[in-house]
Amino acid sequence: xxxxxxxxxxxxxxxxxxxxxxxxxxxxxxxxxxxxxxxxxxxxxxxxxxxxxxxxxxxxxxxxxxxxxxxxxxxxxxxxxxxxxxxxxxxxxxxxxxxxxxxxxxxxxxxxxxxxxxxxxxxxxxxxxxxxxxxxxxxxxxxxxxxxxxxxxxxxxxxxxxxxxxxxxxxxxxxxxxxxxxxxxxxxxxxxxxxxxxxxxxxxxxxxxxxxxxxxxxxxxxxxxxxxxxxxxxxxxxxxxxxxxxxxxxxxxxxxxxxxxxxxxxxxxxxxxxxxxxxxxxxxxxxxxxxxxxxxxxxxxxxxxxxxxxxxxxxxxxxxxxxxxxxxxxxxxxxxxxxxxxxxxxxxxxxxxxxxxxxxxxxxxxxxxxxxxxxxxxxxxxxxxxxxxxxxxxxxxxxxxxxxxxxxxxxxxxxxxxxxxxxxxxxxxxxxxxxxxxxxxxxxxxxxxxxxxxxxxxxxxxxxxxxxxxxxxxxxxxxxxxxxxxxxxxxxxxxxxxxxxxxxxxxxxxxxxxxxxxxxxxxxxxxxxxxxxxxxxxxxxxxxxxxxxxxxxxx
Length: 555
Description:
By secondary structure, the chain is α+β, with helices and mostly antiparallel strands. The protein has 14 helices and 33 strands. The chain has three domains: 259 residues, P-loop containing nucleotide triphosphate hydrolases (Rossmann fold, 3-Layer(aba) Sandwich); 99 residues, P-loop containing nucleotide triphosphate hydrolases (Rossmann fold, 3-Layer(aba) Sandwich), CATH 3.40.50.300; 137 residues, Peptide chain release factor 3, domain III (Alpha-Beta Plaits, 2-Layer Sandwich). Strands 28-25-27-26-30-31-29-32 form an eight-stranded antiparallel beta sheet. It has a seven-stranded mixed beta sheet with strand order 2-3-1-4-5-11-6, sandwiched between helices.
């Protein structure tokens, strides 16, 4: 009997070792990153070119598509295609060389910064895209602070080098002075504007020259040693000499390459190129994959969870309704954090404690999707969402684990959402509930139960326009907005009990959020300060606390 048990234990041990080795191999292959930028820096164009070089698409689409030009792959919503901007997050997974890349495409418009924040919660690395002519811009600074708060490694790509721009050294100085982030230029541009010829790779000491590619195609590259005599016939002497002089300055006075500082978010590798003409895109992708951080441990209620932990775990960082208008689907985006995900596996839903069978997991690629059999840490999978999930939910097997929630930030624009057609109330209610679930806007409710119209609470006006557009085009409901005149929202620490003890308060309106928590709306900061002066013991919060174990209310 002991021999049998010993054999079984030995077999089980071998299987565990094989599983651990296979899991480690898959984790090493994964790279996960989000692209952050100010509007018009070229984020969508760079995304398309990365997919082109990764072999995920055969021809990149122009952002401002006309006639028969292809639409961009990452922008799937009609409104995005009409306006040429990204206003939703999506996930694009593709293989490049021996690496599986999960590219988390984020909204480029500043009104959707909260959606970007949620996406960064699922990212292991960030690519900060800058316009070489404009340098740092407000939206980039804001998103950089989010990356710093999460200690995400940042890789900087200065785009549009094929146009007149600032001096490269000035661009590095701006990052160091304004962001307090050390820089290390991985490559250095040879010329700019119409004289942009290529880059010098500081690591290999090679000159990489580019030829303009046919629209949407990969550009041809030529690699030459710095001292190759052929360069005299290919590049103007003054352009190459200037680039080499500036590199000498960097070697003497610049930062040193340090991978640990990069992964700590204290040093940013810098690249130069042009996404539109494909100059520098492949060298950037190759270097990024070498230097990027592997999937990392995630903070949970029981401390960090290592990706190599055998049991599966993951969290929902985004919900999206109607990605496929033909099927009116709802998709929950789940970042895999540990173990191996398998199709048809049974998992525990941490917030409710229920067991769920995940029968149709999907690999998302813009608007396209395919059923996946397995996934590993760093991957993002799409799950059909019948209304079970909310943003921040944790799924797991084995020992209970719950990851840090994703908070909501204070909105600045508030409007009643009116439905003038009572016969469409059913669709109106469905649309409002589903858009609230995915975080398109925050939904607040009047404390007077007789007032059934929801309050849309948003960071920017475009969010409200998107909600109206989607309600009309995806749910067949025309709506009207009625501005409320408030600009500031604060959650009441301590909840309704504290408000009841306080009695009547003035110069603000009391509403409730989807979790039935009290929220105070103020017309301006002065009214907020006045209330705090009158009631110094009242604790207010500009960030909604994370909720666990409770289902949100619906319209």
